[in-house]
């Protein structure tokens, strides 16, 4: 694979990692998933974005991750205006600045844990040997130094999620987006993943956890609660604020 044309800088950015202003997302048929959302996430924060199915949190994830574009409003990630970037530059932005962790792991079945994590550096321009070295270091960091050569089918669910997290953070992105990271795990494995998220945050990682689980959200230092496409509470601002909510069809998510 060739490295995509990079038109976004990777220089240190000292402002907010995420800044959404007036973000609205409307789908065909009049389904409004987000309604004028304002959200700022500062460097080093650990935030839960929590809401029930159909609340708009998945749409918010896609927009913060630059996987989708808003109908209206502005999105800035690590100082870059996402609206001003083409597809190739958006891909470069994601590769350089955002790490993703999903409920379903999305590991490559036939590849070792080390190779899966090294994939997270595929667009970094680093030599293969350096990518593999950093993969080893990161797997050791998440407690899997003894599972380097194990393929996904040889790992437990909790271990697979740790590999997925290692792949997401190996490039030291500005933002880690974790979408229901404990959703496919038993309680013990889920607890270990939550503890790992806290550890990574203590080491300086900026992390947003998208979840419907209020118990997990309550264990994080900041909770942003979303309902019917509106942020109805943000504990960064005291007790939060309620909006008059219009009806949003359940398809909006």
Search tags:
Rossmann fold, 253 residues, ATP-binding, 4-stranded antiparallel beta sheet, 24% strand, disordered C terminus, 6-stranded mixed beta sheet, alpha/beta, transport, ABC_transpr_LolD-like
Please summarize what this structure is:
The chain is α/β, with parallel strands linked by helices and 253 residues long.
List the helices and strands and how they pair.
Blueprint: E1 18-27, E2 31-41, E3 46-50, H1 57-64, E4 72-77, E5 80-81, H2 87-97, E6 98-102, H3 113-118, H4 128-141, H5 157-169, E7 175-179, H6 187-202, E8 207-211, H7 214-218, E9 222-227, E10 230-234
Parallel strand pairs: 3-8, 3-9, 6-7, 7-8
Antiparallel strand pairs: 1-2, 1-4, 4-5, 9-10
Would you kindly provide a written description of the structure presented here, covering whatever features stand out?
By secondary structure, the protein is α/β, with parallel strands linked by helices. The protein has one domain: Rossmann fold (3-Layer(aba) Sandwich). The protein contains seven helices and ten strands. The strands form two sheets. A six-stranded mixed beta sheet has the order 6-7-8-3-9-10, sandwiched between helices. Helix 5 packs parallel to helix 6. The longest helix has 16 residues, at 187-202.
The beta-strand count equals 10
Helix content: 25-40%
- How many structural domains can be distinguished in the coordinates? 1
Distance linking N and C termini: 34 Å
Q: What is the level 1 CATH name?
A: Alpha Beta
Over all CA atoms, what is the radius of gyration?
Answer: 18 Å
Task: Using the alpha-carbon principal axes, give the shape.
Answer: globular
Q: How would you write the strand order of the largest sheet?
A: 6-7-8-3-9-10
- The percentage of residues in β strands lies in 15-25%
Low-pLDDT stretches are 1-7, 239-253
What structural class do you assign from the helix and strand content? Answer: alpha/beta
Would you tell me the overall average pLDDT? 89
Number of helices: 7
Question: Which topology does CATH recognise?
Answer: Rossmann fold
Describe the largest sheet.
6 strands, mixed
CATH level-4 homologous superfamily = P-loop containing nucleotide triphosphate hydrolases
Biased composition (Low complexity): 236-247
Domain ABC transporter: 18-253
Organism: Streptomyces antimycoticus
Region (Disordered): 234-253
């Amino acid at each position: 694979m060739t490295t995509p044309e990079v038109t976004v800088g990777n220089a240190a950015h000292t402002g907010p990692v995420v800044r959404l202003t007036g973000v609205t997302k409307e789908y065909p048929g009049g389904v409004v998933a987000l309604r004028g959302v304002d959200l700022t996430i500062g460097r080093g924060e650990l935030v839960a974005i929590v809401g029930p199915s159909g609340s708009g949190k998945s749409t918010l994830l896609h927009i913060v991750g630059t996987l989708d574009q808003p109908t209206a409003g502005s999105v800035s990630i690590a100082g870059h205006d996402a609206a001003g970037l083409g597809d190739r530059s958006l891909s470069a932005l994601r590769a350089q600045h955002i790490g993703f962790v999903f409920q379903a792991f999305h590991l490559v079945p036939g590849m070792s844990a080390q190779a899966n994590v090294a994939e997270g550096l595929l667009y970094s321009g680093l030599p293969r040997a350096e990518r593999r070295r950093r993969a080893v270091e990161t797997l050791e960091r998440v407690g899997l130094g003894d599972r380097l050569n194990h393929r996904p089918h040889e790992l437990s669910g909790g271990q697979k999620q740790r590999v997925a997290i290692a792949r997401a953070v190996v490039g030291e992105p500005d933002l880690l987006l974790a979408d229901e990271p404990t959703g496919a795990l038993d309680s013990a494995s889920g607890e270990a993943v939550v503890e790992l998220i806290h550890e990574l945050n203590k080491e300086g990682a900026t992390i947003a956890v998208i979840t419907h689980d209020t118990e997990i959200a309550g264990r994080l230092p900041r909770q942003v609660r979303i309902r019917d496409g509106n942020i109805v509470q943000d504990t960064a601002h005291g007790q939060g604020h309620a909006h008059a909510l219009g009806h949003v069809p359940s398809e909006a998510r």
